[in-house]
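Small ribosomal subunit protein bS21, pasting as requested.
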Amino acid sequence: MIIVPLKEGENIEKALKKFKRKYEKTGVVKELRRRQEFRKPSVVKREQKLHAVYVQAMHRSEE
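Structure tokens follow.
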């Protein structure tokens, strides 16, 4: 459970921002989306490798 303590006279928008940040850090939404459909481990590894190759190419092009 996420608890956001409010200070005396604190704006509700600031409290909502704090709550949203804490909620995003927990990764609940990301985990729900990941679990919506099953992906084989081999497919996941292949995607990770392709992403790593892409990131390396981007870093090389910057230099």
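Note for the archive: The chain is about 70% helix and 0% strand.
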